[in-house]
Write the structure tokens for this entry.
Amino acid sequence: MSNEQKQLLEKQLWAVANALRGKMNADEYKNYILGFIFYKYLSEKLELYVDEKLLSSEKFKFSEIKESTKDGKDILEHIKTACISHLGFFLKPSELFSYLVKKGKGQIKEDSIFILEDLKNVLNTIEQTSMGTASEDDFKGLFDDVDLTSSKLGSSENKKNEVIVEVLSLLAGIDFKLDDAKSDLLGDAYEYLIGEFASGAGKKGGEFYTPAQVSRLLAQIVTEDKKRIRSVFDPTCGSGSLLLRLKEYAEVNDYYGQELNPTTYNLARMNMILHGVHFDHFKILQGDTLTDDMHPDLKAEAIVANPPFSAEWKGEKDPALVHDDRFSQYGRLAPKGAADYAFVTHMLYHLADNGTMAIVLPHGVLFRSGAEGIIRKYIIEKQNYLDAVIGLPANLFYGTSIPATVLVFKKCRKEDGDVLFIDASREFEKGKNQNHLTNENIAKIFETYKSRKEIEKYSHKATIGEIRENDFNLNIPRYVDTFEEEEEIDLDKVVEEIKKIDTESIEIDQKITGFCKELGINSPFRGEK
């Protein structure tokens, strides 16, 4: 996407958001805007597929089919079967996004401009037509967060209708170029909006979005030297952006994810479809990853995650978790108030033998003792899975200003393999509200990881023996010396400077005393008149 395209798109999307801004906060109106963009996408994709694939030899378009006639109904039945098989859903011509916009604007003769009820029915139809098909799980409840009855949209049904018509009309003016197979303008727009909403939502933003520069780093690490990835998994997938980032670096066959928050779970499924991932190639499920593992048999070739930092979980209070294979072998379970290592061992359980895993965690996981220290030691000494520790700058993430670390794990490491430590915490671009990793920062981190090169005050390859000597404490300053020696002070020079200042001070005092005598006033210095 060119800069001109990006600027135009952002301007258009800003106008759409502005129609709802002031009525509700960003965390609420994102559900409407993203939901309506998704509806527009599905509608236009269906229309494009029918016109170009199913009706290419006909003299009429999908939107021109008369739904009330017998011929029209017969044609629509055949089209419906093909659409559900290929796309996973179906809409009639009168349910298309473009039709509702025209109706809302009064451009359809002898028809009401009230579209609120129509829109409710259309969003339900998308889900209903997928029921009992292979796409059912991927479309079920997708629009649950688009509450068209909310009083925040307006004080009356007519006021709500006016707002909805305005939002849909503004979206209608955006060309997402679905007919251009190489264009990902829609995906870019969706990512831009999710990022903007995450920023505007403050602390809640971190629940569904990992900053793009961090997700690029993780994606590069887990796809290193691979052109194709069989499967990628994110057990705390948020909006799915971290999973989708791998597409930029390798061809991904199947995407797996799990998300606890129902709203964010819906965003993730929409995000997959909007980025052209067919419903047969992604499986995003809703539930608590730690207590209800919904992908029990999965062994993923790549795993990426940015789980909630030091979240609470049931831990040892739940007998089922104590004996769960994901946690039981490590000697202890992660503490109740810090589930970080529960996420780590859960992910290790699902990592394939030839896989790579990169996870964002708070710095405390590097050095906290107790149960976490026991688990950390087991992973390093017994399993030999830890491959790298990367320290990131502070204030990169939505909702927290603390610095984070990226831990990289591999199951196919050599027995005598070293662990690479990278201190990237001091190289970043300072922002008004948040700091950012530049492309150059990311490139340096990744190239250092890939080459396993030692750079003074930046990276170090530590042997297991070194880590053992540090009692398996992974605090980065123990391995990467960033200490800057202070310049030596020349004491003789300092003494000479002091003498010079004293001499100058006496001369100045004498001049002031002379001025006082000329003026006939007392000198401010003791003993002088």
Observations:
- The first helix runs from residue 3 to 18.
- Residues 26 and 197 are 6 Å apart (CA to CA).
- The first strand starts at residue 228 and ends at 234.
- Residues 202-207 have pLDDT under 50 and may be disordered.
